[in-house]
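Re: that backbone. Tokens:
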């Protein structure tokens, strides 16, 4: 794996580092991070054995790929010297809402720029990341991007115009799942269970159902029907979901997040 510099050392940068090291796709000597004035870089370096740069100049002395992982609003304030520092380098961004056009203005001489939309399960290697690139990737850069993104889980290439919808679905999606888990827990309590029992049952039901869906690789409706007996308990519950237009609510949820992503990326 070519040497990677991490501009930012927060949760997602940490997930990349730990995933790469855990999969033995990179060695600590191949990775360096910079976290600005806070202690995140030092903490990450102490935990993983990678280098922590004390200055931006030190970060960019020897690297092939720059992973941009600071707060999106800081892109406009990025050191203008990055235009020169990233000349001929591969730049990979995880900045939500920052379009390739904006990234290209900040890193105009990069050999290529890749925009990604990861999600929070990537922190444990169970994420899904959608991505697109400014220009067609060389075979070597495509392999490097895949290795980098595989550190968080799975990845899928999409046109940039699809990334707002990706944000609404998988980027924000974990929050919807967590909310559903909380709703199941609370419903279990309402039905008479203790909070602890209801929470364990809700979490394990979601986890097991997701695993079954992924392993069977069939339509979720098919698995739903396998659980549902005519006029049985599951049927009664599903009828209540249908009456409340559950699917319509989820559709509107994803569309609302997608619309907001479009608003935020208009000038990005």
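Recovered sequence:
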């Amino acid at each position: 794996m070519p040497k990677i510099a991490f501009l930012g050392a927060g949760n997602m940068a940490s997930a990349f580092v730990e995933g790469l090291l855990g999969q033995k796709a990179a060695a600590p000597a191949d990775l360096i991070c910079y976290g600005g004035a806070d202690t995140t870089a030092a903490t990450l370096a102490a935990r993983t054995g990678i280098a922590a740069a004390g200055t931006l100049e030190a970060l960019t002395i020897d690297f092939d790929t720059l992973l941009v992982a600071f707060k999106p609003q800081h892109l406009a304030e990025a050191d203008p010297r990055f235009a020169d520092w990233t000349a001929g380098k591969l730049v990979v961004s995880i900045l939500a809402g920052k379009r390739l056009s904006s990234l290209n203005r900040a890193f105009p001489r990069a050999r290529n720029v890749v925009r990604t939309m990861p999600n929070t399960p990537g922190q444990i290697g169970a994420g899904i990341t959608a991505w697109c690139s400014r220009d067609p990737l060389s075979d070597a850069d495509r392999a490097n991007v895949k290795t980098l993104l595989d550190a968080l889980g799975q990845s899928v290439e999409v046109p940039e115009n699809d990334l707002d919808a990706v944000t609404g679905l998988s980027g924000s999606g974990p929050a919807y799942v967590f909310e559903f888990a909380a709703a199941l827990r609370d419903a279990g309590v309402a039905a008479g269970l203790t909070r602890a029992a209801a929470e364990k049952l809700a979490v394990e039901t979601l986890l097991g159902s997701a695993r079954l869906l992924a392993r069977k690789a069939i339509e979720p409706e098919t698995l739903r029907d396998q659980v549902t007996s005519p006029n049985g308990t599951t049927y009664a519950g599903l009828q209540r979901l249908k009456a409340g237009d559950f699917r319509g609510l989820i559709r509107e949820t994803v569309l609302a997040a997608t619309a907001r992503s479009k608003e935020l990326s208009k000038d990005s």
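The mean pLDDT is 95. The longest helix spans residues 195-216.
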